[in-house]
Amino acid sequence: MDLQERIARRRSGRQHGGVIVDREQLSPVVHLAEPVGRVPVLERLLDALEAVFDDELPPPVAVVGPPGSGTSAVVTAAFDALNEQLSGSNRAIATTTRGGRSEPATWFVAVDGRRVESAFAFYRAVLSGLSTERVPNGGVGTDELRERVRERLAPADRRAIVAIDHHDEPGTLGADRVRELLAPVADSVATVAVGQREPDGHRGPTVTVPSYRDHELVDVITERASSGLAAGAIDHDAVRDLAGWADGNAHDALAALFGAAVLATEDDADRVEHRHLEVARADVPEDGVHVGRPLALSATRQQALLALVELDAADRSISETATAIADRSSLTAGTVERFLYELADDGVLERIPLRSGDTSGRQPSAVEPRFPTLAFRSLSTAREDGESVE
DNA sequence: GATCCACGGGAATACACGGATG
DNA sequence: CATCCGTGTATTCCCGTGGATC
Questions:
Q1: b/e map of A150-164 (b: 16 or more CB within 10 Å)?
Q2: CA distances for A249 relative to A31, A69, A217, A243, A306, angstroms
Q3: pLDDT: is A46 or A132 the higher one?
Q4: Backbone dihedral region of A71: left (phi > 0), alpha (psi from -120 to 50 degrees) or beta?
Q5: Of residues 118 to 157 in chain A, which lie within 7 A of strand C by their beta carbon?
Q6: Residue A225 CA: distances (Å) to CA of A74, A221, A233, A242, A249
Q7: Right CATH number for A3-20+215-282 from 1.10.10.10, 1.10.8.60, 1.10.443.10, 3.40.50.10840?
Q8: CA A222, A262, A234 angle in degrees (round to 5)?
Q9: Annotation: CATH topology of A39-208
Q10: Which of A43, A109, A155, A324 lies 20 to 30 angstroms, CA to CA, from A260?
């Protein structure tokens, strides 16, 4: 971001009288082009992928690190940069049409496992990373897409490095499943499995990403605050505090910062006050899930979660909560109930056993969010237009 | 017309508890 | 006393259907 741009953003921030100047810079689900303080890790990832610089296929790589350590950030940043230099779109355009032979090219495709859960969606994601053509999202079979991927990589000297991010989270495509899907093009594709643990039976280099150390996390927060918040909207002590509290987890820190900024905005305050941070921190559950999890859900599920957050249903049974949510949305109580059970199973919600006065029957339980609700509420694009039809 | 996907609805199964049974 | 049974809920599982897309 150049100086002009920074100034422009500050001005517009001032004009709106807001604490938040640039939501994107502040959002815990957005990665920076150059992650702060992760250079050594980037280097090790490049080492592991070394072979691509000789136009060869690297071994399968695993990138592992604890929650909030920036595994995703590192991989997306590296892949973007590598694509700039090595992908077909930059090298091959001029030459493919001439002489009939194509230049060597390597594509780097990062697939977000949270948003890509079926074979169809997977091939779709890979294909759109491999070409600039529009990829259909319906009306065509999975086989068809797989075939297109194969054709795309058919010429010798064309390769793809496919990262599967969050491969070890519930509901995502596991590394073994991805291997299966890529089997038809195994000769021209290498994988990078990104998650909290190595895939079972992993052979190949592993890049380990450590938690942020305290001062590194301070840098991360400072960087985000300086580009995302109005000048002087938060002081350094508060940032240090926040970093200490987050204990190396950048997601938690950024989610709290974002939440506090949202609260300050709603408060019409001109800076992020201690009380905002206090509440925002309490809103980030200990050992919770990344806010990207709920944000990757279908619009209807997000609607249900938005309603749930409004409801504060900590002491209501799941079925009561489900009916209450159904009343505020276009969904059926039965469907919402199933959603709630599913989400609890996946760890997005937590089930709290409910001691009911009633004697007979199985004990009901309540659910509560295990994600930062302030950030979710503000970032979710699903609208809860409460109009219940019928 | 083909295809994918998510909702909806309901059947099947698990659990809690009191009371009956051996 | 241990176990089984019946009833009422809670929870999980499964599959048909319809909307959206090409």
A1: eebbeeeebbbbbbb
A2: 15, 6, 8, 8, 25
A3: A46
A4: alpha
A5: 136-140
A6: 20, 6, 8, 12, 16
A7: 1.10.8.60
A8: 30
A9: Rossmann fold (3.40.50)
A10: A324
Strand B at less than 7 A from CB of A360? yes
Label each residue of A188-239 as H, E or C: HEEEEEEECCCCCCCCCCEEECCCCCHHHHHHHHHHHHHHHECCCCCCHHHH
Please determine, looking at this structure, whether the domain spanning A292-379 carries the CATH number 1.10.10.10: yes
pLDDT band with cut points at 50, 70 and 90 for residue A88: low
* Residue A330 CB partners (closer than 8 Å, separation 6+): A300, A387, A388, A389
Identify residue A24 by its one-letter amino acid code. E
Whole-number average pLDDT of chain A: 88
Is any atom of nucleic acid chain C found less than 7 Å from the CB of residue A298? no
Residues, chain A: 390
- Domain coordinates of chain A in residue numbers? 3-20+215-282, 39-208, 292-379
Tokens (6 digits) for A64: 């592992």
3-state secondary structure of A366: strand
How many helices (H) does chain A have, and how many strands (E)? 18, 7
Fill in the DSSP letter of residue A287: T
- Residue lying closest to nucleotide C10, CA to C1': A362
- Distance, Å, A348 CA → B17 C1': 31
CA torsion, ordered A28, A380, A340, A335, to nearest 10 deg:
-150
Q: Provide the CA A331 to C1' C19 distance, Å, integer.
A: 15
- The gap between A362 CA and B14 C1' (Å) is 9
- Rounded Cα distance between A304 and A157, Å, is 48
Give the range among A6-15, A129-138, A298-307 with minimum mean pLDDT. Answer: A6-15
Determine the distance between A119 (CA) and B3 (C1') in angstroms. 13
How far apart are the C-alpha atoms of A79 and A158, rounded to whole Å? 16
Structure tokens at A284: 């980030």
Q: What is the maximum span of chain A, computed from C-alpha positions, in angstroms?
A: 82
Same fold, A39-208 and A292-379: no
What end-to-end distance do the CA atoms of chain A give, in Å? 50
